[in-house]
Give the backbone structure.
Amino acid sequence: MKRFLETVGFVIALAGVCGVVRELTDGWFGFMSLTRLLTENVGFLEGRELFANIVIAVLGGVVLIVSDRVPKS
């Protein structure tokens, strides 16, 4: 379970950071545009794409922190 949470946390954090870079470069950095699907298809996130990507990156960091607290099995 610990390894799974580490992997998921890393992927979420990486996607969030890539989304932040993509928003700051005006769409030039299209690699891993996974978060674009979320930010463009959810109505209340329209105009708040940068904030949403920051939240996704922080959420990935939180999952990584939580994975350290899970006992190794």
Residues 1-72 form one domain. The mean pLDDT is 87. The radius of gyration is 13 Å.
